[in-house]
Each structure stands twice: as C-alpha cells, then as structure tokens.
TrEMBL record:
Keywords: Signal. This is Periplasmic binding protein. Transmembrane segments: none annotated. PROSITE patterns: FE_B12_PBP (PS50983). NCBIfam families: TroA_like. It comes from the Bacteria.
Length: 287
C-alpha cells in the first residue's frame, strides 16, 4: 500500500471539533472529505492543492475531475492513502471517527470542522486561510460572505411579515431542521419562522406532522435527484388545506446550495429571501 510522504510538521492547532491537529507548514496535497470543504478550498483559490475529494464533490467544475476517495459517510482509507496526502480536511459529523483515527495512525494530520451554525460556517474561511497560507483571500471571502448575510438580516428586519417555513432537509424519510442548525439560522436570517425550531438537530417528520405544523412555505431540496422532490411536491399538493399549498408556496430548491455548509450558502440565502418575500430587491448578485 502506498503511504503518504514525510510531512513537515507545522503548528499544532485546535480544530473546530476541539481536537489538536499538527498541520504541515505549507500543505501541498490536500484531501477534502466533504463537498462543502472542497467548495471552500476552491473559493479560496487553493484548488491546486487538492488531490482527492469525496463523492459528490462536483463544484466548482474542476473539482468534479479530481479522484474520488469514497463518500462523505464512507471514506475509503486505501483510496485516501493512495493520494499521498499531507493533510486531510474532515467534518465532525459525517466522516467516521475510526477513519480519522486510522489516518492519523498513518501519520496523516486531519483537521476537522464542525459547521453547525452560520458563525461556524463563516469561521471555516479564516481557519482554512491560516492552514493553507492564504490569509488575504480568506479575508476577502469572509468579508463578502459576512456582508451578504448582514444585508439579508437587515432586509428581514424590515419585512412586514415572517412566513412560517418548513425546510425538509431529507425527503425519504422526511426530515426537518431544528433550532440549533445553520439551516434554521438561514431561515431566520431570510425573514422566516422555522416551524420545527423547537426540535434539536434534524427531526424526523410524518405528513401528519406537516399538516399539524401548517407552514406557509415548504422548501423541498433536490436531493438525490429532482424527481424525488417533484414527487414529494405532488404528494403535498393533495393536502388542499395546507397553507403552503393554498398559497402556491411549495418550492423545490437546489439541495447543494442549501445542504452544503460552505460559501454557496449566501446564494441559498438569496433564493430563500426571494421566496419568502417575493418582489423584494435581491440580497446579493448571483455568482
């Protein structure tokens, strides 16, 4: 089995998961174990450092051409080692701890992120800027993302209403978003009221739960293919007394922009604000 080359140890940093990670001084062969990490590294103009990515890392287009090292929840150790990385970027929830431990046993440092809130998503940028020696790019990106979020928040505060929103993070089974998630914050920032705010994490729902929650707006991500979202929309539209159906506000949205805690969340925020407050001026220019 091919192993990674020698890693020139750099500073010991505390990652977002609270772990100590001895990252190399100037990593040149980076493996990203989640699509959101791949997108963020490329947004920092550091894509040339990436030698391997997780399955479904398809944005930007250059990332789709890179070698795959397994899925987000099932990274394959041998595939990762074959890329001879000097650093792996991981996420606390999703990437199995046993794979992270094995990588470190092989001498490959792993820096983990825990993007549970919008603040933590934004914090990924300067952290990666430090790790990848690109503080100027990180500052520019962080400033742009922060400005977009602040502008959306200001618009929401000026809105005359806050529609009740159900975002279904999963469609089979139906999964809502709790009050401790970045998706809840996204809804609130865009000027909506999350109907599953009292739950923690990602609660499982039934269609009867949806009727009881009576949302004004339902958002269906195109996860696993648009066809599944279209079928879920058709089923919801049978419930004629559901406010979102009565008002014609059951929408299919781009799952990749919403469900990946990375730079494209501001595009999701723009979409969400337009859906909740139609006719209002766009928060930011689409990128």
């Amino acid at each position: 089995m091919a192993l990674a080359g020698p890693v020139h140890a750099g500073p010991v940093l505390t990652d977002q998961a609270g772990r100590q990670a001895a990252v190399p001084e100037d990593p040149q062969r980076v493996v990203c174990l989640a699509p959101s990490l791949t997108e963020t590294v490329f947004a920092l103009k550091q894509g040339e450092r990436v030698v391997g990515v997780s399955q479904f890392s398809d944005y930007p287009p250059q990332a789709a051409k890179l070698p795959r090292v397994g899925s987000y929840v099932r990274p394959e150790l041998e595939r990762i080692l074959a890329r001879k990385p000097d650093l792996c970027l991981a996420v606390k929830d999703g990437n199995p701890r046993q794979v992270v431990d094995r990588l470190e046993q092989f001498g490959i440092p792993v820096y983990a992120f825990a993007p549970y809130s919008l603040k933590q998503v934004l914090e990924m940028v300067p952290r990666l800027g430090q790790i990848l020696n690109c503080p100027d790019q990180a500052e520019i990106l962080h400033r742009r993302l922060s400005h977009s979020i602040d502008a959306a928040r200001a618009r929401a505060e000026a809105a005359s209403s806050r529609p009740r929103v159900l975002y279904l993070a999963g469609l089979a089974p139906l999964i809502g978003v709790g009050g401790d998630t970045y998706l809840h914050e996204l809804i609130a920032t865009a000027g909506g009221s999350n109907v599953t705010v009292d739950s923690a994490g990602y609660p499982r729902l039934s269609y009867e739960d949806i009727l009881r929650l009576a949302p004004d707006v339902v958002l269906l991500p195109s996860m696993g293919g648009r066809e599944r979202a279209v079928e879920a929309k058709k089923r919801l539209q049978r419930w004629e007394h559901l406010p979102a159906v009565t008002q014609g506000r059951v929408h299919i949205v781009d799952a990749d922009r919403f469900n990946r805690p990375g730079p494209r969340l501001v595009q999701a925020l723009e979409t969400l604000t337009a859906l909740l407050h139609p006719g209002a001026e766009a928060v930011m220019e689409s990128k």
